[in-house]
């Protein structure tokens, strides 16, 4: 089934058990799509799948998957094909940005882990799913990036590098699997998720002061862009990056 229609599709969301990913899974289920929730937290994925099926009556599957591992990415794709026979939509949402001290304190292990989770997995899943979608006649992929990709700071530089690579990956995949597969990027600014609960008041104030909109975003606002890019109204949009950042990037 082409990703140009809403409802009845098979949608895979990585990092789907929390934050933006969780909100996206709920939104797709509400539209009648079959949702595959993937993250390292297998139990949380299974629990959310049961919750979505109970609430919306649509099939949902929770799968434990460490996207930084090539074999896990392949296993995820193979599991979905075994269960449902196709993949119509892929949302590469999994990400991580661990704290560190100075740039010289970034270890090789930390650097490799950040690149693996934020970029390597998206590459492998994008390639596998893109090829399958093209053979099936259509599909849509959305990569969830970050304004850090274009506003890299010393406190999250490995993350910024990975997200900049993700933006490049979008263009490359869009060209590789055109014309039937559309691949786009959503680039959020600061967003209120469960992680934001640990923000200090000082950080919240500082962030709000750097965003022209005067506040942080909500997960549903990012998901709105994801739904658009994988829906029927975005048929002529591919290789694009949509900022959902309150005007933060390129605002100065």
TrEMBL record:
Enzyme nomenclature, EC number: 1.1.1.47
A GO term for molecular function: glucose 1-dehydrogenase [NAD(P)+] activity
Matching CDD domains: SDR_c
The keyword Oxidoreductase appears for this protein: yes
Keyword Oxidoreductase: yes
Primary enzyme class: oxidoreductase
Residues covered by the Ketoreductase domain: 9-198
SMART domains, A to Z: PKS_KR
Entry keyword set: Oxidoreductase
Membership in a protein family: Belongs to the short-chain dehydrogenases/reductases (SDR) family.
Listed name of the protein: Glucose 1-dehydrogenase
Organism of this sequence: Pseudonocardia alni subsp. carboxydivorans
């Amino acid at each position: 089934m082409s990703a140009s229609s809403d409802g009845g599709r098979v949608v895979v969301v990585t990092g789907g058990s929390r934050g933006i990913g969780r909100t996206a899974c709920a939104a797709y289920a509400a539209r009648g799509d079959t949702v595959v929730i993937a993250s390292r937290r297998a139990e949380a994925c299974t629990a959310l799948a049961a919750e979505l099926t109970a609430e919306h009556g649509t099939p949902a599957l929770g799968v434990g998957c460490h996207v930084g591992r090539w074999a896990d990415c392949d296993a995820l794709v193979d599991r979905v094909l075994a269960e449902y026979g196709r993949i119509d939509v892929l949302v590469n949402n999994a990400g991580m940005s661990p704290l560190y001290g100075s740039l010289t304190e970034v270890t090789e292990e930390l650097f490799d882990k950040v690149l693996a989770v934020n970029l390597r997995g998206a590459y492998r899943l994008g390639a596998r799913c893109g090829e399958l979608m093209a053979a099936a006649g259509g599909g849509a992929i959305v990569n969830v990036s970050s304004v850090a990709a274009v506003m890299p700071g010393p406190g999250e530089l490995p993350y910024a590098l990975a997200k900049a690579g993700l933006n490049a990956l979008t263009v490359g995949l869009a060209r590789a699997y055109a014309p039937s597969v559309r691949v786009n990027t959503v680039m959020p600014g600061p967003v209120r998720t469960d992680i934001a609960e640990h923000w200090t008041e000082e950080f919240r104030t500082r962030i709000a002061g750097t965003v022209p909109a005067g506040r942080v975003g909500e997960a549903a606002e990012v998901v709105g862009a994801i739904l658009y890019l994988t829906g029927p109204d975005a048929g002529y949009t591919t290789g694009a990056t949509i900022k959902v950042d309150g005007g933060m990037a390129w605002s100065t």
